[in-house]
Amino acid sequence: MLTRQSMRGFTLVELLIGITVLGILLTLGAPSFMVWMQNTQIRTAADAVLNGLQLARTEAIRRNKTVQFALGNQTEWTVSVVNPQQQLQYRMDEGSANAIVQISPGGSTTVTFDALGGRTSNNDASSAIDTVDITSATATSGVRPLRIVITPSGSLRMCDPDVNLAAGDPRRCTQ
Q: For the whole prediction, is pTM greater than 0.90?
């Protein structure tokens, strides 16, 4: 015969209390999780664009030829040798459909690197990309946009465009 002492398990009341506590914790954590997800999507999209730019610059130096990086829709990009025309790599969108990519100067879509890795004028005489800003379409408070800066010397840097960051903060974009 089983005694009450030998029976183990949860009562219905204990189970309901546990589910209630879990529900409260999930409700409190959901906003932070959403901000984390948006920041991760922005970071992934920015990394994709930065990787394409680094590939174009590296291939220009390695091949001792002019190589062009062309940004398509959002984070879609193509890296190709300029003369003779040869596509080296193509990437589809990475990150999220919610990522918004803004290029400066407006209307520019390409940047060309010379054999020394510096930025040079585009073959079609269009303006070269200076900066790429990436943010989220579903941005809420706490979401951090990212900026990729391409200097005239060809160096590439990903930084945080938030002007409220301290002057010595390494994440800050220098103005």
A: no
